[in-house]
Amino acid sequence: MRVGKCIIFFKKVDYKYQAIVLGKYDVAETDRIYVLYTREAGKIRLPAHGVRKPQAKLAGNLETLAHSEVFVARARGKGRITGVIPVDFFASIKEKIHTMEKVFWVLGIFDRLVTQEEKDERIFELLLGYLRAIDAAEVEDATKTDIFTYGFIFKLLHLLGYGLEMSKCVACGAMLKPGENFFESERGGTVCAACAARGGKRVKITDEAVKFIRLFLENKIENLGKIKAEEKKLSNLKLVASEAIKWIAG
Ligand SMILES: [Zn+2]
């Protein structure tokens, strides 16, 4: 659900950001620091003064998950948030408890994986596309949510420069054959059974998981809803994702 434009309040404005709120934490008596992923500057942290006062209007448009236009006045440091125009609250996500839990879990992973304060519009579009795709689902469907969620995670890993080689063995370079294969987090790709037998830290990867990851990387996030799957076939995919996240984010 998109919300209408309503200007909350403005003082001085030096910067304007398209932002998705990743999280927030309280500081001082009534202030809050917001962690935002912005189209213009990547991940940034910005304070908002007085937002925890009962009459403050800013906080409602800066809830975690919200897509907003954020206005910043620069006094010292990076400045502070002085105004917000809400774009989308993703209200439909918040109506579905399990979906919302999954999305909040992913925002936490996103926050851990994206550490650089560096502009990358592809990552902004991916995050926005993921939230819109999940928001558009009319009923709670755990499998579909998982496909979008793991599709998002693998696409994000790829955009962050993590290789995800899924057609060759990263150790010997041989083309991958269906059957017994492994995934090595450190080298970011599949390893054949012969190479895996020589040791190293690897987890099994099923042919289905290889196929899913290829589909995720070849397709736009909004089109991943067309992928049909049974929930139990996603368990290996989840294991591979958690191994890769552990290796990158620690
Ligand atoms: Zn090999």
Descriptive overview:
The mean pLDDT is 91. The protein has helices at 91-94, 97-113, 121-136, 142-159, 193-196, 207-218, 235-249, and strands spanning 15-27, 31-38, 42-48, 67-73, 80-88, 181-184, 189-192, 203-205. α3 (121-136) runs antiparallel to α4 and α4 crosses α6 (207-218). It contains seven helices and eight strands; from the N terminus they run βββββααααββαβαα. It is 34% helix and 22% strand. The chain has 250 residues and is α+β, with helices and mostly antiparallel strands. A hairpin with a 6-residue loop joins β4 (67-73) and β5 (80-88). The longest helix has 18 residues, at 142-159. Strands 3-2-1-4-5 form a five-stranded antiparallel β-sheet. The protein has two domains: 15-88, Beta Barrel (OB fold (Dihydrolipoamide Acetyltransferase, E2P)); 91-249, Up-down Bundle (de novo design (two linked rop proteins)), CATH 1.20.1440.120. Zinc ion is lined by residues 169, 171-172, 174, 191-192, 194-195. The site of zinc ion has 8 residues, from β7 and α5.
Strand content: 15-25%
The CATH architecture assignment of the largest domain turns out to be Up-down Bundle
**CATH secondary-structure class of the largest domain:** Mainly Alpha
Walk across the major sheet and give the strand order.
3-2-1-4-5
| Total beta-strand segments | 8
Bound molecules: zinc ion
- N-to-C span: 36 Å
The whole-number mean of residue pLDDT values reads 91
SSE pattern: EEEEEHHHHEEHEHH
CATH fold-level assignment of the largest domain: de novo design (two linked rop proteins)
- What number of domains? 2
- Considering DSSP H and I runs of 4 or more, what fraction of the residues is helical? 25-40%
Q: What would you give as the CATH superfamily of the largest domain?
A: Recombination protein O, C-terminal domain
Number of separate helices: 7
Overall body shape? elongated
Q: Biggest β-sheet: count, sense, barrel?
A: 5 strands, antiparallel
Q: Roughly how many Å is the radius of gyration?
A: 20 Å
